[in-house]
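The material for today's practical consists of a large collection of protein records. A record pairs a protein's sequence with a compact description of its fold. Instead of coordinates, the fold is spelled out as a row of discrete tokens. We will come back to this pairing of sequence and fold again and again. Here is such a record, shown just as it appears in the course material.
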Amino acid sequence: MTLFPEMINAVMRESIIGRAQDKGVVEVKATNIRDYALDKHHKADDAPYGGGRGQVMLAEPLYLCHQALSAGEHVHTVFLSAQGQPFNQQKARELLAKEHFILVCGHYEGIDQRFIDECVDEEISIGDFVMTGGEIPAMAVADAVCRLVPGVLSDPSCYENESHWNGMLEAPQYSRPEVWHDRTVPPILLSGNHAKVEQWRRKQSILRTRERRPDLYEKLDLSSKEDRKLLKELDEELRDERPYAENTPD
């Protein structure tokens, strides 16, 4: 639900999600809230009660649009809001379990709270910042969910090995050529030993998560024998990388 369906269509009809829509695997439908306005000027906003700057989106056009999309049934409805709960991979997986859901894009100074109270199941934020409208956040949510639908990507491994799927950040990736700007690909990736490659990637994921997202690292279960071994190797490698002076007594 948006005031600017062209924005949604311009992005969601392209690339991987666009091809998935062409195949009928997913459908992302942008519905213009103004089509449900009650006057000939398609007015969808008005000045706020109590005074203040800007305009507030009207409850009735939002409600009529929502009713048309839900067709009398309950459809899980999400309002993209800076006041919402943070969006993450787990939330994407929760939305994936729903056959349909509605994303409501706010604009201007917000939308009438009464529509939220009556029709919205949850509010979601993509970060602690404010944007001019909910279209970009809605597309981010739609993209993150749609790519998990079977048939959108070529194989589940395309997303199961990525950042946040299992609570960790993804290992670094490399492609051709083998040497670029005097920087070489890690030799293990050229070895052909798939077991060693997977072990290296697991170790790099642990290291990246520990260094970049300690909040995620604290939640990881690294108690397995394999992970304990990797942690020991990481600690030994990090000690070896320290300058000699740091390991030398004064």
